[in-house]
């Protein structure tokens, strides 16, 4: 049975191996250069304390390949489900060959077990390999990434570490079971894609933020968490302050909520979107008055801080990365186990 | 070998609300070539799939060679099933099909398989997807035979073949049954396909078994009576009317009886298998008409 499964699967396996091989070569060639230029840049910027701008420059230079690679890892499990999972059974049903193979001296359960096992393992290995290679290559960029692309942020988290293996296993078995139910390849593929995409969107939106109680903390305002303060030139109206989606001193965190508190501890609207929140500070005299020369914004920010304005942020810190990765893999492993059980039940009871 | 190849009691299978086969009670003794005949959609495929374990019965039970169909590898090894349209893996060569058979069957006879392919004049390296319908059927049959089954089930094996390929296929099947002892159960909607090869016949019409018996006995007990017009209930009690047709002056009956016919009013003739099967199909249609008429009254 292993022979037959491999004979049917070897074409797609070879194609996947070839693509992954090319991918690995490309990453292996460019990866060390990226790492060394990052190391050199860090060494230079720590000397004169300009690392923030170095990060921006460095990440800006490579953001396209960074995004492309992340996307590849995100899409690979879906492809596995679509092109390996869905047709696994439907191809037999459509060709009628299930009637041929189920009448050899082998039970359907064993037939399915070998097919699921072998193809599934290759799928998981491919996704795992791809994920880990990209994780390695992207390491310097993950260190310097902008807030939205932080390692814990939904898009990037799902494309790093071991999570892709869980996704691939799940997408594959999902494709198989949908194929068994739909019995035709094309509808099965479409349905697999729809269901998998929905789950992949629901996971970071609804489940992942609550895997562990997020940390809530208040921070003084500073360069690390403000996008700037605008002081009206005419005077009269209040200065406006805009917060950054970042946790000061904790890069890589996933910011779940980000609010500006006034001195009495109430939330002020507009701190994180649009033009910013009005700050109740004198704009006719003092550090926030217009006309103050260089460093006005810094001085004004200091004044706002002194008055008691704070950033309150709820986040999942970077330290939880591997813990979350394991939990997420565990959840998808449970899904996978459930669907696998269902597929065995279905092939024994219902499919004919 | 057990004495009966297939035993079914009250066997039925439903698809949704429709019964594809119902109240099927048959007992097929071993060592026969059994023909299963009936119009399209009568439930032939359903019965064969139940026998091979592809389907589970909705009602009743079925025993094949003393075991539950597809009830384990030992049972699977004893029964070969060649499905309708004789499916093969299009991407695999004939040699790979034989390898598949060898890997998946404990009783596989590789020499027999290779010998058969050679005699058919097929190249082992040939892709199964490029074979003609007849060649594909032969490859599927070869797989079924090399498994060395005790029962070989074939579902409309010649339905899509041209007359020449039909004859060749049937001939190959007959040679194999003579050479190696096993029972065969094959279906067709054409009696002519089965006439020369079967020694046991099952007629299945509209999801019910009409008759299941050895062909010799069927031919010996069925007659066509032609004579002056007469109602069917005025026939002797030992004569069961299978079908009846009347003109103004004449009546024609197909009857079944074990006793000789003495009534001099009748012109008595024997039936061939095809007429016999048609009579049973006709009977069913007549029963149905009567039933609907009664409902309408």
Number of DSSP E strands of chain A:
7
The description of the largest β-sheet of chain B is: 6 strands, mixed
Principal-axis shape of chain B: elongated
Largest interface summary: A-B, 20 and 35 residues
- What is the 3D shape of chain A? elongated
Percent of residues in helices of chain B comes to: 25-40%
Domain ABC transporter (chain B): 6-231
GO molecular function (chain B): ATP binding; ATP hydrolysis activity
Protein name (chain B): ABC transporter ATP-binding protein
Keywords (chain B): ATP-binding, Nucleotide-binding, Transport
Short description:
Chain A: This is Transporter. The complex is a heterodimer of chains A (352) and B (297). Chain A has 352 residues and is an alpha+beta fold.
Overview of this protein structure:
- The complex is a heterodimer of chains A (352) and B (297).
- Chain A has 352 residues and is an alpha+beta fold.
- Chain A folds into 2 domains: 229 residues; 87 residues, no CATH class.
- In chain A, the strands form 2 sheets. Chain A has a 4-stranded antiparallel β-sheet with strand order 1-7-4-5, with no helix packed on it. Chain A has a 3-stranded antiparallel β-sheet with strand order 2-3-6, covered by helices on one side.
- In chain A, strand 4 and strand 5 form a beta hairpin.
- In chain A, helix 1 packs antiparallel against helix 2 and helix 2 runs parallel beside helix 6.
- The two termini of chain A are 20 Å apart.
- With 297 residues, chain B is an alpha/beta fold.
- Chain B folds into 2 domains: 203 residues, Rossmann fold; 76 residues, no CATH class.
- Chain B has a 6-stranded mixed β-sheet, sandwiched between helices. A 4-stranded antiparallel β-sheet of chain B has the order 11-12-10-13. A 3-stranded antiparallel β-sheet of chain B has the order 2-1-4, covered by helices on one side.
- In chain B, helix 5 runs parallel beside helix 6.
- Classes of the chains: A alpha+beta (352), B alpha/beta (297).
- Chains A and B meet through helix 1 and helix 3 of A and helix 2, strand 5 and helix 3 of B.
- Chain A: This is Transporter.
- Chain A: Keywords: Membrane, Transmembrane, Transmembrane helix.
- Chain B: It holds the Pfam family ABC_tran.
- Chain B: Keywords: ATP-binding, Nucleotide-binding, Transport.
- Chain B: InterPro entries: AAA+_ATPase, ABC_transporter-like_ATP-bd, ABC_Transporter_VariousFunc, P-loop_NTPase.
